[in-house]
Every structure is written in structure tokens, then in C-alpha cells.
């Protein structure tokens, strides 16, 4: 873009999604033209003209007047009303991951864009995180288990070999293979997991020897 426009002072801020250009009016017009070409190439819309006509939302197809957002992963442009409605619908229906709603596109919406949509539309990000976590857990019951302590928000990975898991929140200790909770050594003697029992015995013997 810098070469095509002849503008040497051209900087792209990826985090803020902002292009800074210091040039003459003629060079700036060339930069806008190149941006227009890039957006057409990304969206596949040959009729797109960002700087020559009103821009339509990719969902409701009405001219955008006010807040809008161009998605980072696919380049489609939406009004904030449609994005907020889509986000709310997906959260309530527990549909994840959240994808672009444009025709023939289902590209995942980036985390950065999701946070921007939530901040601008007033959607509680905590609710989104909670629902997406519940969705993940429901689809991976054989791989992830919740901590058995009531109201504890922690989870642990299920392992094929016996491993000791100590919850960092409630401090409960259990076996990540058979999921039995160990409250004390007396209880542990009746544990089904022989490997963990042997490990505990070796630990006690070690302390007795030294």
C-alpha cells in the first residue's frame, strides 16, 4: 500500500485497528483507493466502495448510520445493532463458537472483536464466558470434570493414569483418573486407586526414614 500510494509515512496499528498517514491530499486519496481494493479482495464484494457510497450492513443490508465494526478475521462489516443481537442470541442459545453471520461465511469472530461488541453494546462479558465454558464442559464430559466441592468454580482434566489433583480454590485432593476424593490417609486406605495409595505410602516412608 505504501508503494502503490507513494506515501512513506504510513503506519498500521494492529491493536487499535488504525492506519496513520501523513501525506498530501493526492497521496491520501491513493491510500483510500488501495484500502477500498483490499476490502473488496477480502470480502469478495466487487461492488464494495467504502469511500464512494453508503455502506450496508452484511446482516440487515441497510445503510449503516453510526456505530459499526468490520470483523478482523473475515473483513465483513456489520452495524452494532446486528452484532449485539447476534451475540445475545448465541449466548442465550449456547451456540459456540460465534461465527460471522454474513452469507456463505461462518468464520469465527475473534476474541478481540467479541470484547469490542460486548463493551459497545453493554453485554456482560462474564455471562458470555460462563455460557461458553458450560458449552465446552457439556461437549467434553469425558475429558473435563468439575471440582466435587459444592459451589467451587474449578475444573480438572481427566487422565488415564492416576494423578493427584489438588484444587487451588477449595484445596480438596482427588484422583484425576477415578475421581475419588481423599480427605485423609484413613480414607485413602480404602481408595480404589492403588498407584496413589503406593505413592502416599512411599511419601510417609520417606519422612520416617529421614
Give an overview of the whole structure.
The chain has about 210 residues and is an alpha+beta fold. The chain folds into three domains: about 1-45, no CATH class; about 70-135, no CATH class; about 145-210, no CATH class. It contains seven helices and nine strands; from the N terminus they run αββαββαααβββββαα. The chain has helices at about 1-5, 25-45, 80-95, 110-120, 125-140, 185-190, 195-210, and strands at about 10-15, 20, 70, 75-80, 145, 155, 165, 175, 180. The strands form four sheets. It has a three-stranded antiparallel β-sheet with strand order 7-8-9. α3 packs across α4 (about 110-120). The protein is elongated and about 85 Å long. Mean pLDDT is about 80; it is low at about 185-190.
The largest sheet has its strands arranged as 7-8-9
Query: How many beta-strand runs?
Result: 9
Helix content: 25-40%
Seen as an oligomer or otherwise, the chain set is single chain
Quick structural summary:
By secondary structure, the protein is of the alpha+beta class. Helices cover 40% and strands 13% of the residues.
Amino acid at each position: 500500500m505504501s508503494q502503490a500510494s507513494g506515501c512513506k509515512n504510513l503506519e498500521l496499528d494492529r491493536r487499535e485497528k488504525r492506519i496513520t498517514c501523513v501525506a498530501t491530499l493526492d497521496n491520501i486519496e491513493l491510500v483510500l483507493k488501495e484500502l477500498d481494493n483490499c476490502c473488496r479482495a477480502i470480502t469478495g464484494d466487487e461492488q464494495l466502495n467504502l469511500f464512494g457510497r453508503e455502506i450496508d450492513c452484511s446482516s440487515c443490508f441497510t445503510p449503516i448510520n453510526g456505530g459499526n465494526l468490520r470483523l478482523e478475521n473475515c473483513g465483513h462489516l456489520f452495524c452494532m445493532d446486528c452484532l449485539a443481537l447476534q451475540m445475545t442470541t448465541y449466548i442465550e442459545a449456547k451456540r459456540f463458537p460465534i461465527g460471522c453471520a454474513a452469507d456463505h461465511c461462518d468464520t469465527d469472530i475473534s476474541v478481540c472483536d467479541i470484547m469490542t461488541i460486548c463493551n459497545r453494546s453493554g453485554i456482560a462479558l462474564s455471562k458470555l464466558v460462563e455460557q461458553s465454558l458450560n458449552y465446552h464442559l457439556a461437549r467434553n464430559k469425558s475429558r473435563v470434570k468439575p471440582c466435587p466441592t459444592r459451589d467451587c468454580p474449578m475444573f480438572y482434566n481427566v487422565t488415564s493414569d492416576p494423578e493427584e489433583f489438588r484444587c487451588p480454590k477449595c484445596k480438596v485432593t482427588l484422583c484425576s483418573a477415578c475421581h475419588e476424593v481423599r480427605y485423609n490417609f484413613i480414607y485413602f486406605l480404602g481408595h480404589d486407586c492403588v498407584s496413589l495409595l503406593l505413592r502416599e505410602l512411599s511419601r510417609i516412608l520417606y519422612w520416617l526414614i529421614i
